[in-house]
Amino acid sequence: MRLFTHNMLSSNIKGVANGFPLRIEAEQVLEKQVDFNPDFLRNLFPKLEWKALVDGARALGYAELPEAADSSMLESEEFLRKVHHALLELHLEEGALTCPETGRKFPVNKGIPNMLLHEDEGPWFGSRSAQMQPSILEMTFSSFKQETSLQLPGSLVSQMLVRITGKQ
Q1: CATH number of the domain enclosing 85
Q2: What is the mean pLDDT of the segment spanning 75-86?
């Protein structure tokens, strides 16, 4: 999981007022080279939560980002290369993301964060939308299958649907 992804994730547990940023507990970190694109970084910069990026980078062992940053720094190629490395080249391969409010850990395996909630943690639990949620997911996945003409039995998408809806 890249820090680019981490910067957008938050805990969606029922009752959590502030589930961002998730704390990173790194067990294995990989570096993967990615082509440098300064224009992409300049466009992305205003959308980043800078403190979350800095804290995430430090959790992965990278301490080259300044505590604070502003748009004037985007003219420096050195600064952009540091941001590029932190956002796109550092990968949390194994570890966990922890909700800052509840302490709930979301595992990260093979670079994929598992943000699925237990039934009693969902924001829809105990409401009418809890009964509607599986059917909405079924329609979404059915639509995806039809639009892409993919056969998905046994795939990750089908497994997720079974896990969420309880239907085969």
Answers
A1: 2.20.25.10
A2: 98
Q: Give the chain's radius of gyration (CA, Å).
A: 19
> Do 43 and 79 belong together in one domain?
yes
Residue 43 one-letter amino acid:
N
Q: Helix/strand/coil (H, E, C) string of 102-161?
A: CCCEEEEECCEECCCCCHHHCCCCCCHHHHHHHHHHHHHHHHHHHHHCCCCCCCHHHHHH
What's the number of domains the chain is made of? 2
Distance CA 144, CA 150 (A): 8
List, for residues 37-74, the tens digit of each pLDDT value: 999 999 999 999 999 999 999 999 999 999 999 999 99
Same domain, 108 and 135: no
Same domain, 88 and 26: yes
pTM: 0.71
